Amino acid sequence: MSVMPTRADGLSSLPGDPAWAVVDVETSGLRPYQHRVLSVAVLTLDASGKLTEEFSTLLDPECDPGPVHIHGLTPQRLRGAPTFEQVADRIGALLSGRILVAHNAQFDYEFLAHEFARARSWLPVSQRLCTLALNLRIGPPTDDLKLASLASFYGVRQRQAHDALDDARVLAGVLRGSLAAAGELGLQLPVVACPPKQGIGYPPRVPKTPCAFRNPGPLAPGAPLVQGMKVAFTGDTHAAREELVARAVAAGLNVVGSVSRHTSVLITNDRAGDTAKARAAHSAGVPLIGEADFLALLADIRPGTTHPTSDAAIPAPHSSRPSATPAAVGALAGRRILVLGGPHDQAAAVRSRVAGLGGAAAVNLSASVTDVIVLPGGEHDRRMPRITDRGMPVHADDWLDTLDLATVSGSDGTPAPLPRADTVRVLPRGGVIDLPTQQEDPQCWRVSAAWAHQANKEVDVVAFIVDEDEQVSCDEDFVFYGAPESPGSAVQLVTEGPNEQAIVVELSALPAAAHKVVVAAALDGAGTFADVGAIEIMVVPASGEQAVAQATLDAATTERSLVLAEIYRRGPLWRIRAVGQGHDHDLATTARSFGVDITD
Questions:
Q1: I need a surface site. Which of 56, 76, 331, 464 has the fewest CB within 10 A?
Q2: Ordered structural domains, the chain, with CATH
Q3: Residue 491 — φ and ψ, nearest 5°?
Q4: Is the pLDDT of residue 9 over 80?
Q5: Contact (Cβ atoms closer than 8 angstroms) between residue 500 and residue 188
Q6: For position 199, what pLDDT does the model report?
Q7: Of 138-152, 322-336, 432-446, 533-547, minimum mean pLDDT range
């Protein structure tokens, strides 16, 4: 029996009969441009999920195998194994023409792409499906979305974790169960286009070392330069611009590509010039000095104040989940409500009330949705037949007015079950929690953003690594679709599906100057966020453990960019805040506000 969705009224299905290639790799580390694949397994499945071929092998990485305590692949076990180049053709033949499937698929995809590039070849994969992203859509009632938990839920036996072949076999079973569950819900499969990739590509080229000093403010008349001052150049210079930048950076100054109110001084030989930077400097009150004066001041620069070290910002281990926001209480605590129909402002108001009553406002139908509120027009939503078939409680738009603050009853009048003790924290707009220390993948967090599957707009999720002045230290601290990884891989953009993207932040790898990571969304093309609807964010450990927080954020009617969340330092801890602040301007304007040098 086919495990693909069979109902014709589903959101969408893949054309034809897709063939699958289930993949798992064990690696010497987490960075594909730096570390190597130690073992690989590929299982090919037909459209019905039936196994057609298996291949697995250990590999000689020609380097240290890394965390042996995790994968158990010692140098002795790997000795005599083939190199990736020797099996690249075999793996390529198995992958060609198939949809690559993996758990956290971008990880496996990037590692394979780099291995093929090292073998002077290319990864023949044009589409991939992430079972982690798929189950984020499905919302199974599991404690977390780790492969082992999903295997238990879908009835798949796991014999040896962190063994590539066994993990691939388990993943094949999870895929079959996930496709069946997605079919029952009528969900669109989050298949991501990934054209054949060639070349290493990462890490991005870093033009200068990030400044180690805090910005002391503007240059006062007659005062010396101080390390950490933000300086910009504009117009023609006598010395080569590259030389001036190099000398400034060597002296401890922070050379920026654009001018804002945080810029300490603009160096120009034409103070009456009409460049964009000069106009910005005059508008913001930034002082201007000539090249000769700058070089003279550079000879006697004063010491600055260093940023706090990264180690000081890593919280000590603790088992609790401290928070500045109280745990969710109220009639809807532990419940997940999908709102259908109505104009955007009415639907947004209902979702806000749901959050105020302690519930989570969903943006898509999933197995974790407990109730549905139908506003005018919602009865015609294409998901209603699925909701009816599943016997889900459906309420009119006045249901929230009738709630008893102590309990909520289902459609049959029976009391709803009490929420589990580990219910995910629902954050209102402005809500804050401390990020707990993790046992695995320490200080690595995923902020996932999802919007309605039927939204007919392109949304770009981006991130800015900013200092105390909320300015980037260099343009590479702007992470977006064109540069999906920051220097050092501390922040990465992950595409999880057509309507899901995530920012992954490794806090321990952030530069010392990083005070905050701002996660935002912007529309690509015409329209506003009223056309998209609400955006739901989930804060999840990158290891796939249970989410610690979620928020549903609605822009009003005119916004084209939206700040979703901020991860920021607070003393020895890191916190996350749900923001939900919309702006009428586009992504380029948002980037400029954080100090990114964007040219029209």
A1: 76
A2: 20-193 (3.30.420.10), 230-298 (3.40.50.10190), 326-422 (3.40.50.10190), 427-593 (2.60.60.30)
A3: -130, 130
A4: no
A5: no
A6: 40
A7: 322-336
Please, how many CA atoms are within 13 Å of residue 408, restricted to the half-sphere of its CB? 27
Task: Please give the Cα distance from 20 to 15 (Å, whole number).
Answer: 14
CA distance 250 to 255: 10
Under a CB-based contact definition with an 8 Å cutoff, are residues 364 and 137 in contact? yes
Q: What would the two tokens of residue 301 be? A: 């620069």
- Inform me whether the pLDDT recorded for 204 exceeds 60: no
- pTM, 2 dp: 0.73
d(CA 571, CA 438): 18
DSSP output for 404-456: BTTB-B-TTSPBPPPPPTTPPEEPPTT-EEEPPPPSSSTTEEEEEEEE-TT--
Looking up tokens 């949809």, which residue turns up? 99
pLDDT score for 101: 97
298 closest CA partner among 213, 249, 225, 211: 225
**Separation of alpha carbons 131 and 179, rounded Å:** 9
pLDDT of res. 439: 52
